[in-house]
Amino acid sequence: MNIATLTENRMAAFQPPSAPDYLPPAILRELQFSRLKAILTRAWDCVPLFRARLRERNLAPSHLASLEDIAELPFTTKTDLRDTYPFGLFASPMQDIVRLHASSGTTGKPIVVAYTQRDVDVWTSVMVRCFSACGLHQGDIVQNAYGYGLFTGGLGAHYGAEGLGATVIPISGGNTDRQIMIMKDFGVTAICCTPSYFLHLAERALQLGVNLRDLPLRAGIFGAEPWTDSLRRRLEDLAGIQAFDIYGLSEVIGPGVAIECPYHNGLHIFEDHFYPEVVDPESGQSLPEGEEGELVLTTLSKEAMPMIRYRTRDITALIPGPCPCGRSLRRMRRIARRTDDMLIVRGVNIFPSQVEAALLTIEGTMPHYQILLTRQHGLDQMEVQVEVTAETFSDRIGAMEELNQKIADALEHVLGIRVEVLLVEPHTIQRSEGKARRVIDRRSES
Amino acid sequence: MKLHQLSIFSENKPGHVVEPCRLLAREGIDIRALSLADTQRFGILRMIVSDWQKAKALLETSGAVVKVTEVLAVEVPDRPGGLADVLGVLEGSGINIEYMYAFPFVRGEKAVLIFRFDKPDAAVTHLAQHGVNVLGEGILDTVAG
């Protein structure tokens, strides 16, 4: 019996679905290494691009002597997925593939991802572990407001909640008034959606005279876009819930790569299936724990579409030390920004999440904002449009001008440059039912 | 003695004032007095209406943020110096006027102005002590004639 089978058997000996969360680190490393060797062999055997990349470097799966050797393997990028569109990175024949998902391609072709039945089962199992970490169980009523369809969010959360034994309401995104009615009438205890959509939903509920704090709703599982701790507090306060950050990406599996536990100090990565590294986004050099860089993930068990050292473009750091919750899975800091979110305005690097954080420092302001970039006389202009709220609105012009000034100051403090602030009417910035569109860049038009 | 004024935020764009007015018109609510304060980038529409609670609910359902402020309708003699006399009463009282605008109905020899004071209660007492007439909600029933 080889090590791989041995560890797989040891794993199976644990009963509850969340048991792998608590594997002793030595066993977890052993499991990761055996799975890494297997996945690399599969990639080499079945995906011409991976074999060619390894050969270029005179590498072969047999050269892998320890887990640390992963740092010598070549990266995979989103461009590789686009270049091999649609099925070029599949490692399974179509008769073994039971599901395809695709990303919303904002530019050009989408990227396509594939799952065998076993991949779907693994995906379900990690989502079950996510929901367990959020304190959900059989008897919970989960409103799944992630979009169902090609986007992985909807079905990922759906299978996970069902796998947990909870009751799923597959409402998908949109129709906010109906979402609120159902949440109230069905006694929903947990909701899954993007944080920006939940903010919209909570505000709309107030308008309709529904106070979410009075409902049985107690947990929100929010993901699919970067958000901040200040927004977490705002959402928790608005709705009387505990908000959990969930992380994932289609290229790796979908939602369910990492989840917060009730300590809310970073997200536990399901390391038995996704091997994390943090690298310098410029040089690609591996960074030690605690240092901030780009998250790189390797799928350790994915059959239909293995990903070797996939560059996620998400900026985070691995958190050293154990978590008080007892999970041995390493944690990463919550993602507040992505390398491709970055805007360069007048030579200064700006992330939309910085704008969100600045707005939340001002009492009564909601992070409903949009950034408009234009170019006037060859110079970048950045305008931040912010909605007036019931708390910030005054009948006095002077007070409104002060508010404008205060927001501009807070933004300057965080961003380092002075930007224009435009107060806009409430509920006029378009609410997204999925990922919020924060930036409108018209610089190339002028 | 105080009136409820509704204020709504308005972007400085064509058509942004007409919508709330239309909404109130459809529901048969009369706008008794109105002032639009504007800057280059935004405006504040302030209104005294016939049924402020209903108007507030309607505007809020339409998505507007509505601020309710207590204001005073003050009778001012309709002759040269009439306003100066009333303002004179306030001098040295420690009560400040945030803004004011005209109530478009004249009662006999008197004009009516809407005042937003920083201390509306103190203003009511002070004005009354000095013989200035502060009108109650009855003013809203005045019909243009």
Task: Describe this entry's structure for a reader.
The complex is a heterodimer of chains A (446) and B (145). Chain A has 446 residues and is α/β, with parallel strands linked by helices. Chain A folds into 2 domains: 1-338, Rossmann fold, CATH 3.40.50.12780; 342-445, ANL, C-terminal domain (GMP Synthetase, Chain A, domain 3), CATH 3.30.300. Helix content of chain A is 31%, strand content 23%. Chain A is built from 11 helices and 21 strands. Chain A has helices at residues 3-12, 25-46, 48-56, 78-83, 117-133, 152-164, 176-185, 195-207, 229-239, 352-360, 397-415; strands spanning 97-102, 112-116, 141-144, 167-169, 190-193, 219-223, 242-249, 254-260, 267-269, 274-279, 293-299, 310-316, 318-319, 331-332, 337-338, 343-345, 348-350, 369-376, 379-387, 420-424, 439-441. A 9-stranded mixed β-sheet of chain A has the order 4-3-5-6-7-8-9-14-13, with helices on both faces. In chain A, strand 6 (219-223), helix 9 and strand 7 (242-249) form a beta-alpha-beta unit. The mean pLDDT of chain A is 91. The radius of gyration of chain B is 16 Å and the shape is globular. In chain B, a hairpin with a 2-residue loop joins strand 5 and strand 6 (110-117). Chain B has 2 domains: 2-69, VC0802-like (2-Layer Sandwich), CATH 3.30.2130; 71-136, ACT domain (Alpha-Beta Plaits, 2-Layer Sandwich), CATH 3.30.70.260. The mean pLDDT of chain B is 88. Chain B has helices at 18-26, 52-61, 82-90, 120-129; strands at 2-11, 31-38, 42-49, 66-77, 97-107, 110-117, 134-135. With 145 residues, chain B is of the alpha+beta class. In chain B, strands 1, 2, 3, 4, 5, 6 and 7 form a 7-stranded antiparallel β-sheet that branches.
